[in-house]
Write a structure and sequence with these properties.
The complex is a heterodimer of chains A (458) and B (267).
Chain A: H1 2-31, H2 43-55, H3 64-93, H4 107-133, H5 150-183, H6 186-189, H7 213-238, H8 245-254, H9 268-277, H10 314-322, H11 328-332, H12 334-337, H13 344-365, H14 375-378, H15 382-386, H16 393-397, H17 404-418, H18 424-436
Helix pairs in contact in A: 1-3, 1-7, 2-8, 3-4, 4-5, 5-7, 8-10, 10-13, 13-17
Chain B: H1 13-18, E1 25-28, H2 30-35, H3 37-53, E2 57-58, H4 69-74, H5 77-93, E3 98-101, H6 104-113, E4 122-125, H7 126-135, E5 151-154, H8 168-175, E6 180-182, H9 212-221, E7 227-230, H10 233-245, E8 253-256, H11 257-265
Parallel strand pairs in B: 1-2, 1-3, 3-4, 5-6, 5-7, 7-8
Helix pairs in contact in B: 3-11, 7-8, 9-10
The chains are: A mainly alpha (458), B alpha/beta (267).
GO cellular component, one term (chain B): plasma membrane
Pfam family, one (chain B): CCG
InterPro entries (chain B): Cys_rich_dom, HdrC_iron-sulfur_subunit
Amino acid sequence: MEIVQQILFVAALAATIWYITKRVRLIARAINLGRPENRFDHADERLKTMLLVAFGQKKMFTNLLVGVMHFVIYAGFIIINLEILEIILDGILGTHRLFAPYITPVYPILIDVFEILAFGVLAVCVVFLCRRFVAKVNRFQPERHREMTRWPRTDAAIILTAEILLMIAFLTWNASDSVLRDRGVGHYGELQGIVPDFLISHYLKPLFTGFSDTTLVFYERFAWWAHILGIMAFAIYVTYSKHLHIALGFPNVYFSDLQPKGEMQNMPEITKEVQLSLGLPVTTEPDGSQTNDNGEQPAEVGRFGAKDVQDLKWINLMNAYSCTECGRCTSACPANITGKKLSPRKIMMDTRDRLEEIQQGWKTNGDDYRDDKSLLNDYITAEELNACTTCQACINACPININPLDIILQLRRYRVMEESQAPASWNAMFSNIENNMAPWKFSPSDRFNWAEQVNESK
Amino acid sequence: MTQEVKTYKVPTMADMAASGEEPEILFWVGCAGSFDDRYKRVTIAFVRILNHVGIKFAVLGPEEACTGDPARRAGNEFLFQMQAISNIQVLNGYNVKKIVTACPHCFNTIKNEYPELGGTYEVIHHSQFLQGLINEGRIRVKDGESFKGRRITFHDSCYLGRANKVYEAPREVLAALDADLVEMKRVRANGLCCGAGGGQYFKEPEPGKKDVNVERVEEALGTGADTIAVACPFCMTMMSDGVKNKNREDSVRVYDISELIAQGEGL
């Protein structure tokens, strides 16, 4: 019997690892569709940001209570995973609480900590479900936010419920195991005197005292398997879900923008054109390198701005996969607050949905397949793009430094420079700047007229 | 009140260059400061302060041109770079080292976006400049209008605050006045935009339930302030329009921080 369980366990573990590897490769390939950009510079500053914002969850504490609750789940996720190591080794070797005899004095302390966290995670997940579906926190409601369609809401419910079930499995497994140990049943009894009762599961023991030995062993095995298979299934599920932020949140923060939020990225390929048209010496190649001596044209200039995900930078695509759809960006967006169609969260969700659609195309039609859809128009409309005030409140609000504004601005560039699709009044503003050196129709020679009034009394 | 007749001067870079002089600082006026009737008063207030403290400054005058900010944010990178590279030609031609401006959009663009195109200067916003003058004791805000009993609330400009993390300077400037400073709920990094950034100033808003400036002005009025202080020409227009929309223009005024300082200093 033991050996059958071991074989099944190894098979399940191998299948999970194989499948997740496949998923990770696919997601990495999708992110690499983006244009290259060096985000490996300033390692010190990036590391510091990651420690503060990702590991330290700094931005989550804007709302202290929610910050603390999220921290409990986060700490639970990180720390309870230590216990997974023992569970996996037990599963492979057919042992029971492998570490207990070797680290006898600290073992119960460790498990107590895990149990406290497990209980905390369970409690917070219940609170979070209530916030979403009972207290109806505004940013999660489909009546108010059209991107909160059925799947994002179901996804959230699945994640929270799965975590609750996993924690119940973990705690009741410990409780049933304690009862078996007390009764001295088989190998469970061998840990009598080595492993004591645990802090939380101790209170659950009365649930199991009425069980026969056989039923109890069955439940102990069921809970153990449910817990570990549940974790494996959850790990796979995460790769399809907004919950991927538990993994990508860290690199996403590491690679996040370091420049001031107000700075828009330069387009060196345009600098060259402008320098030529002004009759100035050309100082840069489109890739930012110095020009070569004979002034040869660069190989090829891509499209200006972004029409589809391939035109965005890889970090924009990693941002999309890291987004957990919390909606803090959208709640801070002045356009969204005042009822415009723009929602920064939707920009991120659309970008990920478009990437998923491309992956689906690869699966059904081969790796070179390109459909004729695009992020612009098929997902994100001009009305949304045109509503943005570039105020950067969305970037500021994001707990993991996602930048929806960067995507919006790249899509705007495409619409204006490749399609000449600016709103008419923007075209008027452009021509005023071009002809009058100001966004309004004033004569440039009148620009200094204000100085005549400097000595007039008020 | 009898007032001695002061003559304020506005030297241009061309004047300075002709007489072989270099100013300590270039005052970048910006398009709104040059053409917008309301913001011209801010330009004048700031020039009077510069005269008053005796700083050797100059403006570009007719040689100044739009930084290109609204074009860039609207998506027209060509036009932005045409403006930027031409402006940099002019600034570098005059060997400009230090720039002060009363427009956060000009401030952000020249400070953060011109260096990559060959224009590197020390750029400060007029709130920072005024803060310096107050800290050095060069402005005492004692000789003019009293602000006792008045309530002022400061509206953060996105391109000053979030974009460049300048939150304290304008508040310290206002603290020099003997008024009560009251804060709105959404301030500093969480400040709500006036609705004008990203080219919105130059077009009608997209369809929605409300205008952004009205939402913001409602918040400002909620503080009970009689003065809304701003530090940006676009915020100035948006907040003034919002106050009018709420029919409160008789009891609530919108001022730039430099105007308040000029009033306090009796300029």
